[in-house]
Amino acid sequence: DAGITQSPRHKVTETGTPVTLRCHQTENHRYMYWYRQDPGHGLRLIHYSYGVKDTDKGEVSDGYSVSRSKTEDFLLTLESATSSQTSVYFCAISESAREVTDTQYFGPGTRLTVL
Amino acid sequence: GQNIDQPTEMTATEGAIVQINCTYQTSGFNGLFWYQQHAGEAPTFLSYNVLDGLEEKGRFSSFLSRSKGYSYLLLKELQMKDSASYLCAVIDSNYQLIWGAGTKLIIKP
After folding, report:
1. How distant, in Å, are the alpha carbons of A18, A56, A90, B47, B93 from that of B30?
2. Residue A21: CA count within 13 A, CB half-sphere
3. CA–CA gap between residue B42 and residue B58 (Å, rounded)
4. CA of B89, closest CA in chain A: separation in Å?
5. Is B44 on the interface with A (CB under 8 A)?
6. Contact B95 A104 (CB under 8 A)
7. Max Cα-Cα span within chain B
8. Contacts of B89 in chain A (CB under 8 A)
């Protein structure tokens, strides 16, 4: 299994509070991704990174920001959490995005509840 | 818009064969993935198709027809541990992965 960890694994917070989720990899992969997964929806890309300090928006980036100061760490921040951001958040990594046979490997997920 | 369609839920019997279909309409096509996701766990890679035809990997096979925008995942000799959701995802022309909502497969003894 690819070495990907996420922290925390579970979090309950209140509306309006800031929340930061961490993804850590030991594979030295260039690409890292943050997804959210909600019932009835496919995985939806929030942000992704293609290198240190290189990030870009995904499909559902509003209300989220990211940072990547080291190859191994990719942080997702909810500046002011809302109930609509209650979800399961997955981090994924891949060696490349343009080598089409490259596979994304997923972390164990973080279950976030915003009350 | 981009769209991937999969049945929401399927039921099959232990030891049998089941086919999970996926149809897609995307801006460009650079390949199709199937992932397995057990409840409460992360998705794990099953297969990748970029050319038409059947790719076999043990009990699992995946088929692709690019002209029809269609793929299926075939699971043989079903086991109880195959109870999971199966996710179809397509790489579009921008090399972004577009995900289907997944098919929940229930295996009965």
Report:
1. 37, 20, 23, 14, 7
2. 32
3. 22
4. 9
5. yes
6. no
7. 43
8. 42-43
Sign of CA dihedral B60, B64, B68, B69: positive
pLDDT at residue A102 greater than cutoff 80: no
Query: How far away is chain A from the Cα of B10, in angstroms, using its nearest Cα?
Result: 15
Rounded to whole angstroms, the Cα distance separating B29 from B11 reads: 30
Chosen from A47, A94, A106, A110 to mutate, greatest number of chain B CBs within 10 A: A106
Q: Cβ of B99 and A44 within 8 Å?
A: yes
Q: How far apart are the first and last CA of chain A?
A: 34
Residue ranges with strand state E in B1-109? 3-5, 9-13, 18-25, 32-37, 44-49, 53-57, 60-65, 70-75, 84-91, 97-99, 103-108
Contact A41 B101 (CB under 8 A): yes
Beta bridge partners of B31: none
pLDDT in tens, B42-60: 999 999 999 999 999 999 9
Q: What is the pLDDT of residue A42?
A: 83
Between chains, do B42 and A109 touch, taking CB under 8 Å as contact? yes
pLDDT confidence of residue A98? 63
The residue count for chain B: 109
